[in-house]
Amino acid sequence: MAHKLRASLRGGYEFVKPKVVDYKNLCRDINNAIGYKDAQMIVNTMNVCRARYLNYSFEFKCQDDVLDSMFWVDEMEKAYYAEFGDLISFNATFRTNKYRMVFVPFTTIDNHKKSVTIGAWLLCNESIDSCSWLLKEFLKTNGKEPTLVLADQDVAIKQAIENVFPNSKHRLCMWNIMKKLKNKISDDLFTNTHFRKRFSKLVWDINMKYDVFETTSRSESMNSFFNTYSESGNLLLNFMMNYDTATQKQRNTQRELDKTSKKASYKMQKPREIELQASKVEIKAEEKEINCSCEHFKHMGVLCRHAFTIIMRCGVKEIPGRYILKRWRKDVISRNYCFSYVQSNSGDCENVKLVNDSHYSFESCVDIVRDEKKKLDLFAEKQQMLLKEFESDYASGGLKSKTDGKVVCKLMGVSIPIPKEINIHLPQVQSNKGSGIKKRIPSAGEVAYENSKKEHRMCSGCGKRVPHNLRTCPMITINNNIHVRIINIYIDMVN
């Protein structure tokens, strides 16, 4: 895939000197160079990040010198949790690395109603001890419990939340609740439309904060987002590179939304004072209490249209400050936080910048002269002159068959050398639930429900399509019983 992409960018396979086999050999050499040192290298790399970057947290745990769990969170993720951590969701995802360690990103919702990551962990098994340890590290790092935790119906997670977050409300996914309804009630009741409507209204009207997060679909969508950057055969170092790339894309989206929101201006034909104040979000109002039976503010964190109608009729010109939650403000992060972006002291960063600038300049020139033959000829001629000059100093023979340690570290994006001494060893390939190794054993209710949907065979006893045969047909049983009773009566009469 990388070779195809390179050929597409260069304009043809003839312009890519390394062959497909060279790309494959490079992957092989990287795996051979890292191999059993993967766990030690990922821990060393994360320790370097903790020492280098301000307010970066990383913790890991081993079992008999084997990596068991690791948790990490950076400065920006802590800031997002501080402002939006009133409710969090997490759900395990699998097939992100070759050891099948479970990846669990913590997710919340920002002021743009977008899912953002506020921390992550990798663990070998979802035991109560492992989950409790990770939640304790999360609590120690952030200093406060979330108000609401949304997770799936996992016994280990449930117990860990109760142990570590005793003051938090733990809610199960609404979608899972509705899905499991068919296993808890009879078929007649399940197919009853009136009952389904009343039950759905009861479930979805439960007092939950911010309905935008009432199912784990947010977490599942975040897992899908990370999975697009990961593969089941990834080394831990590969996985961490992919994680960083995914979070960079996520944060770039947030920056774009912040810029758009700050520059947005609302054109109102006949603006009321309260609308102008809402567009600027300046809090100067006298505190007033507003209640509405729809409880939109309680669920969503913003006033409903009924409330706005009443306060405008009452002549209120500004929204009371208590109804402008800081978590929905457009400047909630920028006005309180100033992130320190610490860069490496090595020359690699400058080289990377120069390479990126060169690529950008080249592509920009091509776009400008693409449709002008004379300028394009001149540009191509100068490029060929530069190429010949550089090639005279460097004979390019494709990629080397063997990759040394420095090249491997550079390609993997780590500044540490490959360690000679190994104190942290790799875990065995795990077989966790949901990892796709074994299917979950369905319950008796699920089996019965699935069987009830199947088309049954014709019973030769009663002549109907029913879930029984001639041997178990109730009509045959009744006839046989009657026949036996007649015989017994006849015998009694004869005697």
How many strands, which pairing sense, and closed or not: the largest β-sheet?
A: 7 strands, mixed
Physical arrangement of strands within the biggest beta sheet: 1-2-5-4-3-6-7
Relative helix content? 40-55%
Number of strands: 7
Task: Give the helices and strands as they follow along the chain.
Answer: HHHEEHEEEHEHEHHHHHHHHHHHHH
Global shape: extended
Ranges with pLDDT <50 over ≥5 residues?
342-347, 396-401
SS-derived structural category? alpha/beta
Radius of gyration: 32 Å
Beta-strand fraction estimate: 5-15%
Q: Helical stretch count? A: 19
Straight-line N-to-C gap? 93 Å
What is the typical, i.e. mean, pLDDT?
78
Record keyword descriptors for this entry.
495 residues; seven-stranded mixed beta sheet; 19 helices; extended
What's this entry about, in short?
With 495 residues, the chain is an alpha/beta fold. The protein is built from 19 helices and seven strands.
